[in-house]
């Protein structure tokens, strides 16, 4: 997912690690990478492992403790709230259930 603010693209990133032992989320973080139009155009033509990481990067949150899956889904849904595929993937989450 990407937002665009006055010629700057800001893709949002989410990364999570699930515990094999109990199925809880044991790590979750969210970040944004900031590109101008030129660097974003180059980025879309190159795989992430081959791109120069000189773009702006800011980690917005990090949780390193067990989360129940329902809370994890809610956090992702709120963080990526403008991405319609999140609701398709996780199912609609009633606004009363969002944390």
Q: What is the H/E string?
A: EEEHEHH
Strand content: 35-45%
- For the record, give the distance between the C-alpha atoms at the N and C termini, rounded to a whole number: 21 Å
Integer-rounded radius of gyration: 15 Å
Query: For the largest beta sheet, what order do the strands appear in spatially?
Result: 1-2-3-4
Q: Please identify the structural class as seen in this structure.
A: alpha+beta
**Total DSSP E strands:** 4
* Individual helix count: 3
Look at the structure and give the mean pLDDT. Answer: 77
The major beta sheet can be summarized as: 4 strands, antiparallel
Principal-axis shape equals: globular
What secondary-structure arrangement, pairings included, does this model have?
Elements: E1 2-5, E2 8-18, E3 25-36, H1 37-44, E4 56-63, H2 69-79, H3 84-90
Antiparallel strand pairs: 1-2, 2-3, 3-4
What does this 3D model show about the protein?
There is one protein chain. 26% of the residues lie in helices and 35% in strands. The protein has 3 helices and 4 strands. The model has no long low-confidence stretch (mean pLDDT 77). The protein has a 4-stranded antiparallel β-sheet. It has one domain (2-97). It has 99 residues and is of the alpha+beta class. A hairpin with a 2-residue loop joins strand 1 and strand 2 (8-18). The protein has helices spanning 37-44, 69-79, 84-90, and strands spanning 2-5, 8-18, 25-36, 56-63.
């Amino acid at each position: 997912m990407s937002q665009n603010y006055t010629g700057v693209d800001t893709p949002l990133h989410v990364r999570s690690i699930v515990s094999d032992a109990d199925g809880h989320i044991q790590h979750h973080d969210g970040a944004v990478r900031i590109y101008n139009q030129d660097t974003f155009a180059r980025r879309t033509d190159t795989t992430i492992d081959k791109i120069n990481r000189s773009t702006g990067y800011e980690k917005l949150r990090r949780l390193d403790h067990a989360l129940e899956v329902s809370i994890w889904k809610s956090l992702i849904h709120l963080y990526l709230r403008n991405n319609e595929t999140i609701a398709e993937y996780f199912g609609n989450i009633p606004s009363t259930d969002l944390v």
